[in-house]
Task: inverse folding
């Protein structure tokens, strides 16, 4: 006799982890700002980006993605996320310079079309980053500000741009090349991102995962740019 077969069980599919895109500004033939002792923006941002991209999945249940992993030039259109996950954040790292050499400190910017939910999320992430940097006694210039940078306003994901310091200020330039300072700086960014992902004021970013330090090996996705 034939035995009636029930419907096949539905497989359990884990939701995709949040994705944090880490963008090291400039690269290759575009060095960006240059400062004290010949320090170049493209070098400093890449060092900090590597630390951040490794630290994020080591401490949080997220994936990280570098827009460039070496000293190569990646056009803007290739830096922006193309296949957006439900929970994606974009953090762009840059460095400042000034002719007189006096200005110093970190500056935080956010973008996206004004009035959109993505813009509100971007602003909230920028505020959290500023708070966490100041909690570690790092010098931050003013409040987070809206800026029309193309990497922000053309971005489909909540996005911030962090100017990590002024390369033309001697103390900023020296600190930005110090491994301990880079660790302190990236710790602040990781903590801010963790708070953002847990915050119920960010409904587009709600995750089903508890955001706690992960014991799993780091999950750093392949880079967007050429490696």
Result:
């Amino acid at each position: 006799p034939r035995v009636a077969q029930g419907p096949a069980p539905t497989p359990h599919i884990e939701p995709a982890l949040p994705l944090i895109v880490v963008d090291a500004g400039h690269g290759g033939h575009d060095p960006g700002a240059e400062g004290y002792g010949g320090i170049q923006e493209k070098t400093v941002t890449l060092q900090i980006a590597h630390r951040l991209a490794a630290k994020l999945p080591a401490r949080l249940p997220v994936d990280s993605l570098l827009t460039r992993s070496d000293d190569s030039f990646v056009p803007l259109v290739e830096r922006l996320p193309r296949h957006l996950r439900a929970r994606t954040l974009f953090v762009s790292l840059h460095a400042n310079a000034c002719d007189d050499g006096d200005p110093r400190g970190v500056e935080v910017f956010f973008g996206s079309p004004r009035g959109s939910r993505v813009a509100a999320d971007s602003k909230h992430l920028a505020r959290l980053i500023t708070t966490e940097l100041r909690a570690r006694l790092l010098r931050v210039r003013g409040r987070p500000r809206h800026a029309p940078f193309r990497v922000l306003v053309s971005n489909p994901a909540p996005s911030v741009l962090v100017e990590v310091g002024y390369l033309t200020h001697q103390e900023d330039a020296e600190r930005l090349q110090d491994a301990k300072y880079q660790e302190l700086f990236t710790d602040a960014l990781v903590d801010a991102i963790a708070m953002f992902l847990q915050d119920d004021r960010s409904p587009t970013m709600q995750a089903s995962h508890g955001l706690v330090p992960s014991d799993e090996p780091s999950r750093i996705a392949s880079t967007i740019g050429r490696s």
Q: What stands out?
A: Confidence is low (pLDDT under 50) at residues 1-13, 200-227. The first helix runs from residue 41 to 59. The radius of gyration is 19 Å. The CA atoms of residues 3 and 9 lie 17 Å apart.
